[in-house]
Structure to design on (581 residues):
């Protein structure tokens, strides 16, 4: 299969490393340091010469003055220290009793941070101490701006339309509050966190007679509730998660056990969408982290069993070099054979969750790793190609109907470098990391190619003689301010420590501030190719949940504040604990 493509297989030997700090910058820095040292040395010599010219009496006067001053300072310091200590103590007692400071809460509860989740496993709660540098402070301000606009104009609705100042509902589940809450927690934004938590406690209900998308609600709402439960240990979050999980379970009631795409949470019934008998492959395979965590937290195995059976069933199905078509029939449990194969829309997180489930379960489920390795091999051999003239590596799509390769890449595909790097950090082959480094550079170019420094939804590549490697069609030039590229930057930064990824992230952040920021929040844009893009008037919940969270984590001085050896981060950027099995 794919025989016509074999001659263009990628050569991973010629990868393009990300640029480093220039020699000129290094030279300037070292010369500045030398000049400073010289100045300090000269002024020390002058003081010593003056001291030697003083008489014995003058020197005794100076000694006496120093002794008296030091004694007075010490006395003052001791009494102030006592005052400050007693003030701090009072503040801590106050804070812990009204639960008003996240950072303080973490300190007071230091003894309680370990929760025994089973006889054999101890899971630690993380402690977040807020922003540590100017870039992180800037991202926190962006989050506050987005939250404020949403609060004023769309509180309790799914999304804010920040230009018109209107609300938009998709599932009527207060998506922006629920999805964005753990970002507020991680940033140490106490007021925003408390008001969001209060809304969830009193207003988030799952009883409405309304169809919702099973996958979206699982990754955004169930995932967020479980993360907030894990962070805060507030049982309210777990109760909500359990209620929601039970109402989502009918999705698995198809003849094959492959979930239906739509669920009515109020009537507890599920079905395929009106327009198709099929479910999306990425959707049915991107709920397992959340359902497993729900089982572990509630000690009720039904959720994990239903979701794991889906992975198991898909493992049994025939694939094309480890790659899967993007539609699957929940009645027959088989793939739609002529569907596209892609790591973009509808295919992406199938690959992501193979690796992440393997990590979540302490690397104990071998078939998940086998399927992941086979899939990445398939990506390398059949979907990874080079463009012309500069041989940029990209991941294209394969149309199984016409058996043709399509040189186009969704922005969604830019999750892949992060996932590859995560796999490499967990012992997978070196060439996975080489692929990650090359691909993230291409993703960077999809931003850098435009005056807005923002990437389009889809990028097309030239493979035969051309002047430009990539181009954007008018219909694909919009931006929803998606997270996948900054997500990968964070993985690459945490895993390699290479500051270039932070610099790239800062360039993207500035593009967002310049072109997407409006009075009431941040808006998606119609055309990243234009210096004056028209706003599409929508602030997606993943902008708060993912884009801003990943930027904040990317700019941290301590790159392990969400430590990838302890957490597996779901497809909507909600961190969940890694288990032993
Ligand atoms: C998010 O809702 C999730 O990351 C999902 O898996 C795919 N894409 C959007 C953001 O782009």
């Amino acid at each position: 299969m794919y025989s016509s493509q074999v001659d263009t297989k990628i050569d991973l030997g010629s990868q393009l490393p990300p640029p480093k700090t220039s020699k000129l910058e290094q030279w300037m820095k070292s010369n500045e340091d030398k000049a400073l040292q010289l100045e300090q040395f000269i002024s020390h010599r002058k003081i010593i010469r003056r001291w030697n010219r003083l008489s014995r009496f003058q020197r005794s006067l100076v000694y006496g003055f120093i002794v008296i001053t030091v004694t007075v300072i010490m006395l003052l310091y001791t009494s102030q220290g006592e005052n400050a200590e007693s003030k701090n103590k009072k503040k801590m007692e106050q804070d812990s009793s009204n639960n008003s400071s996240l950072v303080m809460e973490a300190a007071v509860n230091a003894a309680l941070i370990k929760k025994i989740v089973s006889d054999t496993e101890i899971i630690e709660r993380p402690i977040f101490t807020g922003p540590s540098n100017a870039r992180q402070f800037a991202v926190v301000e962006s989050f506050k701006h987005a939250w404020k606009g949403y609060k004023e104009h769309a509180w309790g609705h799914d999304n804010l339309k920040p230009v018109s100042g209107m609300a938009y509902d998709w599932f009527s589940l207060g998506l922006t509050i629920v999805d964005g809450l753990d970002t507020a927690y991680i940033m140490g934004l106490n007021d925003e966190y408390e008001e969001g938590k209060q809304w969830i406690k009193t207003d988030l209900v799952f009883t409405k007679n309304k169809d919702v998308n099973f996958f979206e609600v699982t990754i955004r709402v169930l995932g967020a509730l479980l993360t907030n439960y894990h962070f805060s240990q507030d049982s309210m979050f777990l109760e909500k998660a359990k209620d929601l999980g039970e109402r989502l379970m009918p999705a698995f009631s198809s003849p094959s056990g492959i979930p239906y795409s739509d669920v009515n949470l109020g009537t507890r019934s599920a079905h395929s969408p009106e327009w198709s008998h099929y479910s999306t492959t990425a959707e049915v395979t991107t709920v397992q982290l959340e359902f497993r965590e729900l089982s572990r937290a509630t000690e009720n195995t039904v959720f994990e069993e239903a979701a794991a059976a889906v992975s198991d069933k898909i493992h049994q199905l025939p694939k094309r070099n480890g790659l899967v078509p993007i539609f699957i029939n929940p009645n027959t449990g088989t793939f739609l054979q002529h569907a596209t194969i892609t790591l973009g829309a509808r295919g992406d997180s199938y690959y992501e969750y193979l690796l992440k489930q393997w990590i979540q379960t302490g690397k104990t489920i071998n078939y998940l790793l086998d399927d992941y390795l086979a899939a990445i091999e398939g990506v390398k051999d059949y979907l990874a190609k080079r463009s012309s003239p500069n041989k940029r590596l990209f991941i294209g799509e394969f149309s199984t109907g016409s058996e043709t390769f399509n040189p186009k890449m969704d922005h969604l595909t830019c999750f892949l470098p992060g996932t590859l790097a995560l796999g490499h950090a967990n012992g997978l082959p070196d060439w996975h990391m080489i692929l990650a480094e090359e691909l993230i550079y291409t993703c960077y170019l999809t931003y850098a190619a435009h005056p807005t420094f923002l990437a389009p939804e889809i990028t097309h590549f030239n493979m035969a003689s051309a002047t430009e490697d990539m181009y954007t069609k008018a219909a694909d030039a919009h931006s929803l301010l998606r997270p996948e590229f900054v997500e990968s930057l964070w993985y690459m930064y945490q895993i390699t420590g290479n500051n270039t990824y932070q610099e790239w992230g800062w360039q993207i952040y500035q593009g967002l501030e310049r072109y997407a920021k409006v009075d009431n929040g941040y808006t998606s844009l119609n055309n990243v190719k234009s210096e004056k893009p028209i706003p599409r008037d929508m602030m997606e919940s993943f902008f708060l949940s993912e884009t801003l969270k990943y930027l904040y984590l990317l700019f941290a001085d301590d790159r392990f504040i969400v430590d990838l050896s302890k957490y597996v981060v779901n497809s909507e950027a909600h961190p969940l604990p890694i288990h032993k099995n």
